[in-house]
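It is worth pausing here to work through a concrete case rather than discussing structure prediction in the abstract. The textbook approach is simple: state the sequence, then state the predicted structure, then interpret. We follow exactly that order.
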Amino acid sequence: MKNKNLISIWAPLLLSLCLAIPAAAADLAQVKAAGQVGELMNGLLGLVKPDAPEDVKALVNSINAQRLAEYRRIAAKNGVAAEEVAKLTAQKVINQTPAGQFVETPSGWQQR
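Step two, the predicted structure:
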């Protein structure tokens, strides 16, 4: 009986998380394609233009919080600094950024 109650509680939660993640991914792809958001050299997202709409800022903050949590988790598991994980991830993500999107360089934002 307890297992049935747990399933009834967790199933909707898991379903909502599964549905929310693709929506955030689609939104991120849209704002990147629009040139509002780019990849930073520290493994986080950045606003290409600081006057971005509030919903874009909220999306960036949400995704950055998720990324930081994941960097910390991976770092703890491997006994390295979270900053090291973030930097390595940034290099990979920046190298895979499609043409037309923005990445941070030592001299500022650059469109691929």
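Step three, interpretation. The longest helix spans residues 2-33. Residues 1-11, 13-23 have pLDDT under 50 and may be disordered.
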